[in-house]
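User: quick one, sequence for these tokens?
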């Protein structure tokens, strides 16, 4: 219906018109054609119409067009902007100053200021206030992975194929089936933002870190874990690069199997630099920047494949705050450079099943106000964190961890709601996503399911109060 409307618009009849459709948070233009399809939900679009003719129709600034129902995936569009004007030398700039349009050649004609028409489309399924989400992982089924072995060791940094119960030739199919179970469990619990549960991963980081070039996984190195214990890790033996997209199939599978907004996670460059033995770069700061380039390319590909939110996991910023201040924040911002999709950074005290003691507060958190991520994910339930720290992150959406993963007992919805209410003194409900403290990977499935339901019910209680 939108394309049909565009074809009836006066500007569409101008000879020599080049039309590009841009997601506001996507840097790559998509050529608009009559049978165009999009494999991801788009919340806001900018349509830039570059005119090579002087016969530009005058479009009133006040013109508005209401489109009641566009159909999937257009249901989630909330804002759409049309920009009309001659081709110009400077790109139209979007959020954070990133170019929305591809390079546009200058015209010999005098420059004309673009006319702007905003088309407001009511979404049929917008995110509610206080949306709910997992941080990332969900409990993997016993038939898929040996959970006893998983719990009896530190999270693997190199490949740990011995953890899988399914033989290699059937493993991808089994992981897909487990991902479907994780999706359905989140939907049934009432969560608003859906992850793939990280069903295909042995740990949150090794699936990505071991897929990079320049890393010798056959002859691993050793590095101290955040607990102080030596752990086998990838050995950086050459220049780090990403030979191919790593999680694109995963997000495409996720998008194909839910109509909810979806979130994907990637390990952060600083954390990966701490989980490696560096035998190539002059220092870990240089290694972190090399990892950042790989993460940056991955994030852009995940957004292009349909991820509504991409989260960078950086737990080692909390574990090693001095190094994080020295070069970790620089590497994080390099990983986010030029990214126009919505991003988050998760920082925590470690898996509750592995790291049992919680400090009273974060050693590295206010510094994240200086990163370009839109959202910051923190844990508060197990630690009983003083939420006054949120005042330092007033410009960020907070993914608020309010589910204690150290205890298998399912919290009441009212207890979870109380944990969320504590944050209202420091930030507004509009800036909060209700989430788990960390990944649910080590929880029994029954416990994970109950905790998700408690989280969704708590959100319902709070929305009714607001």
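Assistant:
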């Amino acid at each position: 219906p939108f394309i049909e409307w565009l074809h009836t618009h006066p500007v569409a009849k101008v000879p020599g018109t080049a039309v590009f459709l841009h997601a506001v948070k996507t840097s790559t233009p998509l050529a608009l054609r009559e049978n165009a399809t999009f494999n991801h939900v788009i919340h806001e679009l900018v349509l830039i119409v570059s005119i090579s003719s002087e016969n530009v129709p005058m479009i009133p600034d006040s013109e508005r067009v209401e489109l009641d129902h566009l159909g999937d995936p257009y249901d989630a569009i909330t804002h759409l902007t049309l920009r009309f004007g001659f081709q110009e030398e400077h790109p139209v700039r979007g959020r954070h100053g990133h170019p929305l349009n591809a390079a546009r050649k200058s015209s010999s004609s005098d420059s004309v200021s673009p006319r702007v028409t905003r088309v407001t489309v009511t979404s049929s399924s917008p995110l509610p206030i206080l949306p709910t989400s997992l941080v990332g992982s969900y409990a993997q089924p016993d038939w898929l992975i040996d959970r006893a072995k998983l719990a009896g060791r530190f999270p693997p940094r190199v490949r740990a194929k011995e953890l899988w119960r399914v033989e290699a030739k059937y493993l991808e199919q089994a992981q897909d089936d487990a991902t479907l179970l994780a999706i359905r469990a989140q939907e049934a619990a009432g969560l608003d933002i859906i992850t793939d549960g990280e069903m295909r991963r042995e740990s949150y980081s090794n699936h990505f870190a071991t897929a990079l070039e320049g890393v010798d996984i056959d002859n691993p190195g050793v590095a101290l874990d955040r607990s102080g214990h030596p752990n086998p890790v990838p050995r950086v033996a050459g220049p780090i690069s990403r030979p191919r997209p790593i999680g694109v199939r995963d997000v495409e599978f996720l998008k194909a199997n839910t109509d909810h907004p979806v979130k994907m996670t990637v390990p952060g460059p600083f954390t990966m630099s701490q989980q490696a033995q560096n035998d190539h770069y002059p220092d870990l700061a240089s290694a972190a920047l090399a990892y950042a380039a790989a993460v940056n390319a991955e994030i852009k590909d995940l957004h292009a494949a349909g991820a509504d939110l991409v989260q960078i996991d950086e737990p080692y910023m909390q574990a090693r705050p001095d190094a994080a201040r020295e070069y970790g924040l620089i590497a994080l911002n390099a990983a986010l450079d030029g990214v126009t999709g919505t991003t988050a950074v998760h920082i925590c005290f470690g898996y509750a099943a592995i790291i049992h003691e919680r400090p009273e507060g974060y050693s590295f958190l206010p510094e994240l106000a200086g990163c370009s991520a839109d959202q910051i994910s923190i844990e508060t339930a197990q630690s009983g964190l003083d939420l006054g720290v949120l005042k330092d992150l007033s410009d960020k959406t907070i993914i608020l961890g309010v589910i204690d993963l150290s205890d298998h007992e399912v919290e009441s919805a009212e207890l979870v709601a109380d944990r969320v209410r504590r944050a209202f003194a420091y930030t507004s409900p509009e800036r909060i996503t209700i989430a788990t403290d960390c990944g649910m990977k080590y929880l029994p499935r029954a416990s994970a399911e109950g905790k998700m339901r408690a989280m969704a019910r708590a959100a319902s209680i709070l929305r009714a109060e607001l």
